[in-house]
Design goal:
By secondary structure, the protein is of the alpha/beta class. The chain has two domains: about 60 residues, no CATH class; about 170 residues, Rossmann fold (3-Layer(aba) Sandwich), CATH 3.40.50.300. About 55% of the residues lie in helices and about 10% in strands. The protein has a five-stranded parallel sheet with strand order 2-3-4-1-5, with helices on both faces. Helix 9 links the parallel strand 3 and strand 4. About 30% of the residues are buried.
C-alpha cells in the first residue's frame, strides 16, 4: 500500500469519526477527478465540503417531506395556470413560488369549487417549503378537529396545540366541506388562534367566507376566526372548470357524443 493510499485512508477514517460520512464516501473519487488539479486550494476545499453539505441538505429535505404528512407529491411547476379562468394571476403565482409569505408569517387561502386545483397548489407549496428548508405539516380540517377533540378528552389539548404551532407552514385542507358543531368550531378556532402571527397557514375551502358563520354554527366564533385568519393573508378565489376533469379529458377517459 502506497503512502498516498495510506494518507487517503487515514483522512477517510477521520471524516467518518467526525460524522462526515458523505465526504468520507466520496473522498477517493473526488481526489481522482482530474479537474481538481486545475483548481485553487480554496475551490477544492469548497467542492469537498459541498459533498457533505449538498447530500445532507437533500437528506434533511427528504426527512421533512416524510414528516409532513402530505398524502402525495405535487409540484407547482406541474400546475397548469392557463386552465384557471381567474383568481391567480401569473405575478401572484410567481410570488407564491418564492415562499416569501412564510417569512412574513402570512396565511394563504385558496377558495373555489371542487376540482379547480386548490389542494394541488397547497401540496405544491408544502413540497417547495420542505425542499427549501422549511417544515410543513398537512392535515384535513376534519382530522385536525378529531385530533384536537381527542386531546381535550385526554387533558392534552394545550400540548397538541403547541405541537401544531411548530411547523413553519400548516396545510389545512377541506375547511367547510362539512358543517361543524359548536364544540368542533371552538377547538378549530383554538387551532387558528394558536398559529396567529406565529406561522403561516395554507388553507383550502369550497365555501365563501360569507357562509362560514353557517358552517361554524356560531357567528361569534366564525367572526373571531376570520379576524385572525385574514389579518395577514393572501386570498385566491379560483375560477375554472374541474382540473380533474381536464386530466381525464387529456388521457381520453371521458368523451362526449
Amino acid at each position: 500500500m502506497s503512502d498516498a493510499t495510506i494518507a487517503v485512508e487515514s483522512v477517510r477514517l477521520r471524516m467518518e469519526e467526525l460524522g462526515l460520512s458523505f465526504m468520507a464516501a466520496g473522498i477517493e473519487s473526488f481526489l481522482g477527478n482530474p479537474r481538481q488539479a486545475d483548481e485553487s486550494l480554496l475551490d477544492s476545499i469548497r467542492d469537498l465540503v459541498d459533498l457533505e453539505y449538498v447530500a445532507r441538505k437533500e437528506r434533511t429535505a427528504k426527512t421533512r417531506l416524510k414528516l409532513s404528512g402530505m398524502p402525495q407529491a405535487k409540484h407547482l411547476e406541474d400546475f397548469d395556470l392557463s386552465w384557471l379562468k381567474g383568481g391567480l394571476p401569473t405575478t401572484r403565482f410567481e410570488d407564491l413560488k418564492s415562499l416569501s409569505f412564510i417569512e412574513r408569517k402570512e396565511n394563504i387561502i385558496f377558495l373555489g369549487p371542487s376540482g379547480v386545483g386548490k389542494t394541488h397548489l397547497m401540496l405544491g407549496l408544502g413540497h417547495r417549503a420542505c425542499m427549501s428548508g422549511y417544515s410543513a405539516y398537512y392535515i384535513s380540517c376534519r382530522d385536525a378537529i378529531e385530533r384536537l377533540l381527542k386531546a381535550r378528552e385526554q387533558n392534552r389539548l394545550r400540548r397538541v396545540l403547541t405541537w401544531f404551532k411548530k411547523p413553519h407552514v400548516l396545510l389545512l385542507d377541506e375547511v367547510g366541506h362539512e358543517p361543524l358543531s359548536p364544540e368542533q368550531a371552538h377547538v378549530f378556532f383554538q387551532l387558528v388562534n394558536t398559529r396567529y402571527e406565529t406561522g403561516s397557514i395554507v388553507l383550502t375551502s369550497n365555501r365563501p367566507f360569507a357562509k362560514w358563520a353557517e358552517i361554524m354554527s356560531d357567528e361569534a366564533v366564525a367572526t373571531a376566526m376570520l379576524d385572525r385568519l385574514l389579518h395577514h393573508a393572501q386570498i385566491f378565489s379560483l375560477k375554472a372548470d374541474s382540473y380533474r376533469m381536464k386530466e381525464r379529458l387529456r388521457i381520453g377517459t371521458v368523451g362526449f357524443d
